[in-house]
Amino acid sequence: MCGIIGYAGPREPVGVVSEALSRLEYRGYDSSGVAFFGREGSLTVVRASGKLSRLTEALQGTTGLPGTAIGHIRWATHGAPTEENAHPHRSGPIVLVHNGIIENEHALRQELIGEGVVFSSETDTEVLAHRIHRAFREEGNLPAAVRKGLAGVEGSYALAVLCEERPGQLVVLRKGAPLILGEAEGEYFAASDVPAFLKWTRRVMPLPPEVLATLSPEGLSLCRLGDGEPVPAVFEEVPWDPVQAEKGHYRHFMEKEIYEGPRAIIDTLEGRLAEENSRVILPELVRLGPNPTEIVFVACGTSYHAALLGRLMIESFSSISVRVEIASEFRYRPLRARKGAWVIGISQSGETADTLGALELARKEGYLTVGVTNVGGSSITRETEATLLTRAGPEIGVASTKAFVAQVTLVWLLALYFGRRESPEVRKSLAALVRSPTRLEAFLGSVDPNAVDRMARQVLEARFVIFIGRGIDYPLAIEGALKLKEITYRPADGYPGGELKHGPIALVESGVLVVAPLVDPLLRLKEISNIREIEARGGTVLTIGPAGDAIEPLPSFPLPASEGWDGVFLASAVLQLLAYRAASMAGNDVDQPRNLAKSVTVE
Ligand code: F6R
Q1: Top mutation candidate among 330, 381, 384, 400 for ligand 1, by most atoms within 8 Å of CB
Q2: Ordered structural domains, the chain, with CATH
Q3: Range 88-94 average pLDDT
Q4: How much is the pLDDT for 553?
Q5: Closest by alpha carbon to 302, among 321, 266, 272, 327?
Q6: What pLDDT is stored for residue 387 in this prediction?
Q7: Could you read off the pLDDT of 166-220 as tens digits, one per residue?
Q8: DSSP characters over 121-183
Q9: Is the pLDDT of residue 90 over 70?
Q10: CA–CA dist 66, 186 (Å, integer)
Q11: Which atom number of ligand 1 is nearest to the Cα of residue 352?
């Protein structure tokens, strides 16, 4: 949801900032812009509406002076995605980029208008530029002006600020929106996400909230926003491989990331299995004390679907009751969980505003909170008592794929962790989990692209696609529908199979396609009955499930027989590939679907 980048160092900055923006494009793609010091020393702003390629065209052949530069990619909130509303925004010598929302923008704007300020955009960001400009005139010092300009500003922000009169300084800070610092030999980066600068350095430091960092090619200093007290800079090396943030030989990140599913499982299991893979250890949870009396999962979108699977898995092996809540709904209701409950937020980005809001509510009500996230150092890691990292590596495609696989791995681990170790079912399930990456890898290697394409064509020809499933197939069904909707823009929905006859079955007629994952061994026969009901009414059904059991004829897309819950990985890979191929055939921008952004940092 908007991406920002700041650079201070000896390289030609327009190239650095443009390349970094191309790695942040998944965060927004309504408009973009850069600011840099031109050859004659003045601070130059170049902006373009539309995709980043428009900015790249506008920048053809442009170079800037080594030193400092900033860039922005926008997902519009205040004001249409026009060039005027694109960042950077300027007021006198001050030029800045912003990710977030200024909640008291109206009052601040009126105050500035009262002082005679003329606005050139509809954005909330512009008020910050004018306020910092006003403060700079009073203070004559950029970091002090930023601190003063932000006093009284409400909302969330990650900001990168340049000043024409201070060419060697870049000031960055954040509150409620992510910002990560990167350090290399004689140069510094600040970006909304690590992949932006992963090519140049793996030494990172998530900037703490309300800490102001001043970056220059000569060094870095940090101080608290409120009282200016110095804060130490502590950088750590991230294990992410820069190659993970490149497309390699794949056409799209989404395709590459689907094939990275097995690696996501292996890395998420790393260090969490002991005694020759016979015991799950989650040291992160030990200091929380006794096991929870109840678990409340809060999450959005795909992460919510992983939580639904988590409920089924945990309840299979322990007596802990599990609730799953859509974070944006949950945060405005009384929580009413049992004493001793844990509230577990699942979020790939660790920055989803609704999930963070739900966790904040839980913490205020005295519950222990746990974050499950793919991004170390993200806000969720700071705002929960314990963090369980999924280790899918950077996910660039907007539609979540390998991160979902890693989330499912983690909730499966949780189920085994809370289960009785001596139980034969738990042991069997653990063995299946350990084997699952190898089996998924082999399966992905054996997928016949023509078979996926045949299904994809049927999907594109259908007027409406209904995904159905029961048990573990239900979260898979709604995840399959979400994937299809978000990248093909085709009407699709997911329902519990048994619920169909309570309404949605009225939609079934010729031209309506039903897709049914069938990997829940306990409910398969019931699912097949639901399929028969659809076929009896003229609906076409595509089934994705293990071959060679009670289904006649064979499933439309046969899978190897499941071991434990690994059918979830196999079927979700097919659903992901199905959406991917259908969207590619439709000529859509798979990695950057319209209206979406990778991390949703506003409510
Ligand atoms: C769908 C998708 C979204 C996210 C949702 C939550 O493919 O990616 O539905 O799952 O926005 O994001 P995180 O997991 O970052 O909290």
Answers
A1: 400
A2: 3-238 (3.60.20.10), 253-444 (3.40.50.10490), 449-585 (3.40.50.10490)
A3: 96
A4: 64
A5: 327
A6: 96
A7: 999 999 999 988 899 999 999 999 999 888 999 999 999 999 999 999 999 999 9
A8: SS-SHHHHHHHHHHHHHHH--HHHHHHHHHTT--EEEEEEEEETT-TT-EEEEEEBS--EEEE
A9: yes
A10: 12
A11: 16
Question: CA-CA distance, 409 to 265, in Å (whole number)?
Answer: 6
Query: Catalytic: 247?
Result: no
Which amino acid makes up residue 181? L
Q: How far is the CA of 406 from the centre of ligand 1 (A)?
A: 13
Per-residue CA distances from 458 to 504, 530, 554, 585 (Å): 20, 20, 18, 12
One-letter amino acid for residue 176 of the chain? G
Nearest atom of ligand 1 to the alpha carbon of 399? 7
Residues 287-296: tens digit of each pLDDT: 999 999 999 9
> What is the widest separation between alpha-carbon atoms in the chain?
79
2 is catalytic: yes
Contact call for residues 232 and 404 (beta carbons, < 8 A): no
Ligand 1 atom with minimal separation from the 355 CA? 16
Return the pLDDT at 39.
82
pLDDT tens digits, residue range 225-276? 988 899 999 999 987 777 677 788 899 999 999 999 999 999 999 999 998 8
Gap between the Cα atoms of 534 and 514, Å rounded: 8
Mutate to test the pocket of ligand 1, among 192, 300, 389, 390 (most ligand atoms within 8 A of CB): 300
Q: How far is the CA of 600 from the centre of ligand 1 (A)?
A: 8
d(CA 383, CA 347) in angstroms, rounded, equals 13
Pocket test for ligand 1, best of 352, 373, 595 (most atoms within 8 A of CB): 352
Average pLDDT in the 433-448 region?
Answer: 97
Predicted pLDDT of residue 240: 76
The dihedral built from the CA positions of residue 220, 221, 225 and 231, taken in this order, carries a sign that is positive
**Pocket-forming residues, ligand 1, beta carbon under 6 Å:** 300-303, 347-349, 352, 355, 399-400, 482, 486, 599-600
Least confident interval from 42-46, 144-148, 327-331, 459-463: 327-331
The residue whose CA is least distant from atom 9 of ligand 1 is: 301
**Residues of the chain with pLDDT > 90: what percent?**
76
pLDDT, residue 188, reads 97
